[in-house]
Amino acid sequence: MEGDAFDITARTVQGEIGSRFHDEAVKAQAIAIYTYIKYQNSINVAPSLPVAATATQRIADLTREVFGELIYHDNRIINAVFSASSAGYTSSARNVWGSEVAYLQSVRTQFDEQHDPNMGMTIIYTSAEIRDAVQQQTGITLTGNPANWLRINNHIDTVYVGEMSIGGRTTFTNAGREITFTGRVFRERVMQFGNAERRFRSASFSFAYDATTDTFTFTTNGYGHGVGMSQNGANILATHRGFTYKEILRFYYTGVEIR
After folding, report:
1. Mean predicted confidence (pLDDT) in 201-205
2. Positive or negative CA dihedral for 9, 15, 19, 20?
3. 188 touches 164 (CB < 8 A)
4. What distance in Å separates the CA atoms of residue 39 and residue 256, rounded to the nearest whole number?
5. How far apart are CA 94 and CA 104, in angstroms?
6. Which of 30, 45, 116, 190 could bond 112 through an S-S bridge, CB–CB 3.0 to 4.6 Å?
7. HSE (CB half, 13 Å, CA atoms) of 21?
8. 8 Å CB contact between 58 and 18
9. Does residue 196 surpass a pLDDT of 90?
10. Residue (of 134, 246, 243) closest to 181 by Cα position
11. Which residues contact 173 (CB under 8 A, 6 or more apart)?
12. Tell me: the pLDDT tens digits for 69-116?
């Protein structure tokens, strides 16, 4: 879509977080969105974002207060990515997308444990659901005791699942390319089935198999890829710690300035 930059920014803030967050968190989100769109456009990409039909007066007013401000690192507009919630730590760009980015480092967010609504979410899947998803997405046929199907081999950025074994294998082949099983691959490729309420929320997770019910119970922390600003975290920092929008942005994006 094309249109007035302010209008699109305000409507995207509305689409991303609605009207329930603290004023300073809303302003931080507005700047992150405007910066993100400007960065993506600079590399000839039209980003995919939820744009509401209209913005409330409050969201429009708060967006207008900061509209035109951008986030810079080393005098360059940053790729101001964000997600719904971190998991006690944000993810680094290197461990999620494979490229080192100076301003997208893992940041400790210990306040998540007390205040973030996406911490400690549980979801139950039958072994048949896991088996079918793995077969459909990777071509691997799981057999034998389900308790032995999944194994977490290590963690990255402290709390996110790194490499995994599924059915005793650490890789699978897709379109001639070998793909390593990681927490991110498991979340984004294998477990994206069913309705939205049953979607796998984060690559920060643990699980247990119950042979009595033949089910897997997963506990996830955070929501989304976890890189950059946490939307719920921004609201927590503003509400419980009195952070301004600039302090929020500097907290999540390492070594940046806002102007």
Report:
1. 97
2. negative
3. no
4. 15
5. 8
6. 116
7. 29
8. no
9. no
10. 134
11. 139, 179
12. 999 999 999 999 999 999 999 999 999 999 999 999 999 999 999 999
- Largest pairwise CA distance in the chain: 60
Extract the tokens encoding 81: 């990515």
Domain extent, residue 239, equals: 5-115+224-258
Overall size of the chain counted in residues:
259
Decide if 86 contacts 230 (C-beta within 8 A). Answer: yes
Same domain, 69 and 169: no
Confidence of residue 199 (pLDDT cuts 50, 70, 90): confident
DSSP 158: T
Tokens 């997208």 sit on residue:
104
Q: CA–CA separation, 217 vs 93, rounded Å?
A: 28
Kind and range of the H or E run holding 26: helix 23-42
CA distance 164 to 170: 6
One domain for residues 86 and 209:
no
Query: Across residues 146-160, what is the average pLDDT?
Result: 97
Q: Please state, in angstroms and rounded to a whole number, the distance separating the CA atoms of residues 161 and 184.
A: 8
* Residue 3 to residues 7, 9, 10, 11, 94, Cα–Cα distance (Å): 8, 10, 12, 11, 34
Question: pTM score > 0.85 for this model?
Answer: yes
250 HSE (CA, 13 A, CB side): 10
Q: Summarize pLDDT for 122-141 with one digit per residue, the tens.
A: 999 999 999 999 999 999 99
Pair 215, 127: CB distance under 8 Å:
yes
- Measured CA to CA, the distance from residue 171 to residue 111 in angstroms comes to 35
Q: Do 133 and 62 lie in a common domain?
A: no
